[in-house]
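TEACHING EXERCISE
Course module: macromolecular assemblies
Task: Read the component lines below, then compare them to the predicted structure of the full complex.
Student: A.B.
Group: 4
Components provided:
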Amino acid sequence: MTFMPQMNRRSFIIGAATATGGLALGIDLPFGSKLAMAQGAAGPEVTAWVVIKPDDTVVIRIARSEMGQGTLTGLAQLVAEELECDWSKVTTEYPTPGQSVARKRVWGDFSTGGSRGIRESNEYVRKGGATARTMLIQAAANEWKVPASECKAENSKITHMPSGRSTTYGKVADAASKIEPPAAASVTLKDPKDWKIAGKGVKRLDTVEKTNGKMIYGTDVVLPNMLNAAIKDCPVFGGKLKSFDEAKVMSMKGVKKVVRVDDSSVAVVADTWWHAKVALDALPIVWDEGENAKVNQASIESWLKEGLDADKAFVGNQNGDVKAAIAGAAKKVEAVYSYPFLNHAPMEPMNATAVYTSDRCEVWTGTQNGEAAFAAVLEASGLPAEKCDVHKIMLGGGFGRRGRTDYVTQAVNIAKQMPGTPIKLIWSREEDMLHGTYHPITQARMVGTFDANNNLTGLSMRISGQSILAGVAPSRMGRDGSDPVVFQGLSPSGDFAFSYSIPNLLIDHAMRNPHVPPGFWRGVNINQNCIYVECFMDELAKEVGQDPLEFRRKLMAKHPLNLAVLNAVADRIGWSKPAPAGVHRGLAHFKGFGSYVAAAAEISVTGGNKIKIHRIVAATDPGHAVNPAQIERQISGSFVYGLSAVFFQENTVKNGRIVEENFDTFDSIRMADMPPVESIVMPSGGFWGGVGEPTICVAAPAVLNAFASATGKRIRSFPLKNHNIAFA
Amino acid sequence: MIELKVNGKMHRVDVEPDTPLLWAIRENVGLTGTKYGCGIAQCGACTVHINGEPVRSCAMQASEAVGKEITTIEGLAANGMVHKVQKAWVDHDVPQCGYCQSGMIMAAVSLLKEKPKPTDADIDAAMTNICRCGTFQQVRAAIHDAAKA
Ligand code: FES
Ligand code: FES
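Instructor-supplied answer key:
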């Protein structure tokens, strides 16, 4: 089992040979002989998803991107399951977007975000495997002149049952590739309960190269005669590049060229990246910072605060009459919460390598969306699709940031000014921090009402703040200008359904879009929406002196799958029994990306402000669990990402620009702070929910609720460091 | 021109003395397993061994490493045998994106040299690298396992 995508040499050769590509530019193949190139080279394609070589190696094509979340392995498991192949012979490769275009998008969507990698493609990739199996069996049957119905495939072997004759996939693959595929409708898929490879916690396919330094990431790409570029974009979003004095740096060591990249950025091209960076730091640059330079954090926050009372708001979820409930309430509880801007800060800063001539443009980059990167290459190069391609490289983390293509466009813009020379553009960490697409900033006013018998009669939730779609994809907004993504976890139904029934409910959004560009940040809007709802639920329960679990259960009769995960974590943490002395508990649950998730935390607090998380129990019901071992890793990993934000992270704005430039002011959880996470993966079947993102949202409110229980202090703005709260 | 001894081999590299060792290793020696994450000694992605000690190579000048033994992730395997820490990493399926893992492994190897049977507290103290994917739970288990090997 090996992982091959980054050295999809064959696709490179195809691209190069058919379209006067890399080879014609005098570019040799990009990666050294240490990679077993030959593996990607020969073998008949049975279906678009499956190539089988004479030695029985199975190459499974993966269109989605691997960025650590395990999708590559999971998708391969699904194809292999239906293919009935020997898992130990499986390897994978990425088709390129250029090939996809040439083949009428035979591999479907390449985009890898929204926890959609597996849940949205599982059916057609499984069919790709099942179709190949059918064709392989047919090829063997033809050879033996027996009916295919008498033959059975298992573990890459086909057996003619009556005679016991057998052959292997590798021997019949060539013949199979020439057979007319069966009609799609005639291909049936296995019942998941019969799965042997899928549904199992098999090892990832891409691990060994990640432990010996051999895995090639975008920053590691080396092409012959390549030069390196370092870039600065105007630190004030929306500002422009006025001028720069290249004469001051041209004589510095290694410097080849200083280029205007676009309206707002300048790059130094040098023999090494370090030389490029040193010269860039020395380059006198004059920015036209524009109006946005007047914007500060306080002005953004007061604008959002004003939105909490604004008349105009988009309704996301509504039933009953909240106004009447508030007017007639025996008791009313009110609280305002907020959540900051956050950079994704993937471990590997943004980067892309581009080579351009008037006849061809190719890019090597880590991207969550190969097709979007391809479109960016077409647009920046001005060349038609058949003269461009993108070669996807392993991502050093994505978390949503690498769904964008700004860095790809920049690399092509630079390469265009040095035709024929490959240019590797790497952002410094500082550039990456200053030019993120940030988790949106929001505030929320929560109002809950009770009748005289302490029954919850109403909930009003007014969100004020940023819309991601307004910044990223206005075409996906509602006709009225609303952004449905704001209501993740709060919607009346669907993948992001609100998981309580409350007689009078109003959840609405006053849109306030600051100039800071927003983006999809792992978990997106469930991060803060879950904190707002689940912390406030505890506030409500406390107000009426009820147990937080019992209080929730009463509102969840119509939400059995949410209730199931909530009960699971409550059981495992031992909610019905008292916590150990000095230990306090909190819990939370939610629905996001089609999955049901819950967490329960046990913490202790010393000195009123030092938190030790003793354990977090997490449960998820993603419908189907393709690789439970990887799901567990996504749960604990997502908690690190989410809790890092809540404890340490915020990006603030001063004079129109982001203040925090590196991990010294934007810290991230390290080993000592890592809570032990116990995962309960409880797929209930019948639907396909996401894995990489849903669980992220429940850790923070579970811990915050435990903190409130320990100290009586309710924290409603983040990060906790601003309240002088830290890990013990 | 300075001379660096990396993984037992001498390399003459044309860098200014104050070039960070990280970039000399990556761009001049040509070993890219050592990663750039922050450039300010915060994240540990660039961790290498200098005379057996873990060092964040982004914060060390190349000239300071002259005359010393530099070991990178590529030099960890001896005589074609993967290091027991690498093996434990594979057994526990530790890496997610993997970008931090060269540094993480180099830090773990140093820890085990210092403390062959580390406690959880030892691991907490020694493993200060950032992993944005959040692999710490598997890192801890793999270190304990490697300690038994
Ligand atoms: S790159 Fe050296 S510590 Fe981050
Ligand atoms: S595995 Fe991705 S940063 Fe550690």
